[in-house]
What we know:
The complex is a heterodimer of chains A (356) and B (377). Chain A has helices at 2-25, 27-39, 43-50, 76-89, 105-110, 125-129, 173-184, 196-204, 215-222, 252-270, 278-281, 287-293, 299-303, 309-316, 320-327, and strands spanning 53-57, 60-61, 65-67, 73-74, 95-99, 116-117, 133-135, 140-149, 164-168, 189-193, 210-214, 231-233, 239-243, 246-248. Chain A has 356 residues and is an alpha/beta fold.
Amino acid sequence: MKKIQWKFILAGLLLILPLAGCVTDVPAPSSSSAGTANSQQSRLDTVLKRGKLICGVSGELPGFSFVEPDGKYSGLDVDVCRSIAAALFDNPDAVEFRKLSAKQRFPAVQSGEVDILSRNTTFTVQRNTELNLDFAPVIFYDGQGLMVRKDSTLNTLASLKNRSICVQSGTTTEQNLADQMRQRNIPYTSVVFDDVNITFGAYTEGRCDAITADRSALVSRRSSFQKPDDHIVLPDLLSKEPLAPAVSSGDPRWSNVVKWTIYTLINAEELNIDSKNVTQFATSNDPVVKRFLGGEGNFGKKMGIPNDFAARIIKHVGNYGEVYDRNLGKQTKLKLDRGLNNLWNKGGILYSPPFR
Amino acid sequence: MPKFWRIALQGLLLVLVVGTIALLWHNLTANLQQQSSQTTRLGFDFLREEAKFNIGEAAIPYQPSDSYGRAILVGLLNSLKVIAVGIVLATTLGVTAGIARLSNNWLLQKIALFYVEVLRNIPLLLQLFFWYFAFFLSFPKVEQRLQLPGAIYLTKSGIWLPWLQATSATGTWLICWIIGGVGAGFILYRQRQTLRPWTVLQAGAAIVALSLLALLITHGLPLQFDVPQVIDNFQIQGGLKLSPEFAAITTGLSVYTGTFIAEVVRSGIQAVPRGQWEAAQSLGLSPNVVMGTVIFPQALRTILPPLSNQYLNLAKNSSLAVAVGYPDVYSISDSMNSQTGRPVEAMLVIIVTYLTISLTLSVLINLYNRSVQIVER
């Protein structure tokens, strides 16, 4: 009996030994490579060598990132990644999209599993400093709102007293709602789910009198309801939600590429350059346009990417206005007004620093 | 020589275990340091910070201005509520179904078989979604509430039941009952060798006497009925409110775990030797007495160890509550994690919590198990 027992334990030990070997092997290279990445090698080199960009998106939000029936991704967040791929590889499809949940997104970008997080993510001080993320310029100025059923006679925050509100966890919305209601001294019941589909499902099933999320997300989700017209988004704004792409901090070369890709989209709209006329502009004599499209100077080369990156982005993806109209504008189901997301000289707050 | 090997192998095992843990710890700290310079150091000081989020249902007073620590406590109590109610319901359901499977009644037997075989083979998460969306959220809204006799209201926002409520007299009653109970226990214990009806009557009289005393002191009953009332078209107050989330997770867990308990009970009963059945029957005992006093107590010895596994499963599966929006300890730590960006600490809190719950449960069941096992002389 004793002997047999020991044989088993020995066999167990022999099984554990290689496992212990794995444990020592696996993290070592990853930690050392990440260590050098911080000092010299940039994420930019990794992406260029790989030949494609790995982009973390939501995949659940029509207009921002969504899987179309033909299996392709579309949306504003998606087009940001396509722009970067266009700048680097002259091919907007050189992107591998990874669907990330609200909870998974930060570890995914911190650990380097994705090169960039383009997932309707709010730029906050805590995420910037404590989570060590570098945020690119804001691509969508959003605010948190509430959606209710039209026939419910609920029309203000105060009318939601003692009512139940569906919230998704893993985001800033839970805290914003609590802050606003606390400030106004309105008691309410929160019903918190960790999955976005379940959250909206519980609302449509009538569990909650209201649901809270970013207003763009509410409108986007409403567009896929069976009866979108039965629901209204209340005018109350609970918070400012500037949505921006993010990369892991401590890599200025890579974050600069992301930053100037987004400024390219905005600047192109300011200069009235779009995907149709960009080839005509290429022969322009205007020095501002020439510098922007890479005909003069060498901004691209100094960043470590092709000199005509702006022309490539505009040719393949378009300018910010085109991207917005295609994904969120009048012709889409969402029909979101440009509002704050217009150019600074057209009543919005989008503004690109000069390319010089 | 064998002795040397025994010690050497023990030592080797110890080195391996300690080494692996040290390695993992080293990895964790190294990665954390690398990801984030000095800003995020492991520690639990943040538990004292303001939680800033709301919790849908809490057994103790809670506000968003309370600390993360208190929020976790609220979650823990919510979890314990589900586990406690779940264990009671699952045991009742499981024992009934287990005995029914051995019944001579064909219909009863087949119903039990159908219940066990269907429900234990469908993933629990799916069942939870079913109970939540297809059952508890299919009730009408509060405005069009469904009323059952006895002031029971069924709505999408929750189920309201009449419930007993403590009064100002509860404390005095409780003290009197404890004294009476101890007295009755003492009377029964002294006469335990020859338990006569007269002794039982004496013990009962002790409790009745002290109840009368309590009534004299307080002029009130220990508990009163708290009946839910419709305040306006949108609100019901009073009574016991069960949220659809709580109802879904508790029902789902009980029904699912009940199937496994049914199998445990069935196998335990079948493990009792046939001779015991025959002996009991030949004494002329009725079938109920045979099951209740001869077979089941013996089966209990076989049932308890696997039953404790099912209880532990139920306790751990209660963490699926987050899927149907019930604020259990896992769900709360999830919110805490996303606000503070401290996944490691949040994970540790969860691990320690579930470990404590499970180990406590298993110690309790083991103690009970020891008391029912045969003492060999």
